[in-house]
Design a protein that fits this description.
278 residues
Length: 278
């Protein structure tokens, strides 16, 4: 009986890695593909596989967005609310996260390690518990601030993701560039504005887009903090899925997936072009 050669073992290991990778990709993409396929069904129910393919439910979504009953459907309203929440959340995270990332990356002070660990705490904290805690705080304070209470909740979760991107980008900037600028008479704010920000802009942009996507799709925190007047798209999808079982929900979800993937590709293209230029 002949023993497998080194080349044969390497080939088997490569085939094993390739098989596991394909299996993981299939597990990740299967639910998304199923949603995309069902969104094109011609039937009235969530049936898989669909009896025939049609754009019927995309036309239904368009009618809900711009038709005469758009106000009753509330799809356009919830979409605008989610876009507003996601944009404000990204803005808050950038304004708070960029200076904080620079301070943690460039300065040494007591408690720095503890602060870094605390910033990442919301990522591992159960979203349900965080949502209940924020709901209790809002109710106890009596300060129901509409859309801003959801923005604050999303910012708590999104800030660690933005700061990780910013800190990684700032870590790649040579401190000698900043020292050289200071030696030539530039003030610290000017060094930050003209040296650090341009060189870290790729990480900041990717972090902001990531926070935008996370906030736009976030459901758990929104579920505890939404109101009749502040009705995010994730809550609209949840209520529609519970009450109507309409394939229109899958059509809306498919459009969201396409927009999210396009946003990620745009970020990759921007960062890639900056990297190539550098």
């Amino acid at each position: 009986m002949s023993m497998p050669t080194a080349t044969g073992r390497a080939g088997m290991e490569w085939q094993l890695v390739k098989g596991i990778t394909c299996m993981l990709l299939a597990l990740m993409l299967a639910p998304i593909c199923m949603v995309l396929v069902i969104s094109f069904t011609s039937g009235d129910t969530l049936q898989f596989p669909p009896p025939a393919l049609s754009l019927r439910w995309y036309q239904e979504v368009w009618t809900m967005l711009v038709g005469p009953d758009a106000g009753i459907a509330r799809l356009r309203e919830s979409l605008l609310v989610s876009l507003e929440i996601a944009a404000l959340t990204s803005l808050v995270c950038v304004l708070a996260g960029v200076p904080a990332s620079y301070a943690l990356e460039r300065y040494r002070f007591a408690g720095k390690t503890l602060i870094e660990e605390l910033i990442g705490l919301p990522v591992v904290f159960p979203a349900v518990v965080l949502g209940i805690a924020l709901l209790v705080l809002v109710s106890a304070s009596g300060l129901e601030s509409g859309i801003f209470q959801i923005v604050v909740a999303h910012s708590i979760v999104g800030l660690p993701f933005l700061m990780r991107n910013c800190m990684t980008a700032m870590r790649g900037i040579d401190p000698m560039l900043e020292e050289a600028a200071k030696t030539l008479g530039a003030s610290p704010p000017r060094v930050f504005w003209e040296i650090v920000l341009p060189l870290a802009s790729g990480g900041i942009a990717s972090g902001a887009i990531l926070v935008f996507i996370l906030s736009f799709n976030e459901f758990t925190l929104s579920y505890f903090l939404y109101s009749v007047d502040v009705f995010p798209l994730s809550i609209w999808l949840f209520q529609q899925a519970n009450t109507s079982f309409s394939p229109a929900v899958f059509a809306v979800s498919s459009l969201i997936v396409v927009v999210n993937v396009a946003a990620v590709l745009v970020v990759d293209a921007v960062i890639g072009s900056r990297g190539s230029a550098a």
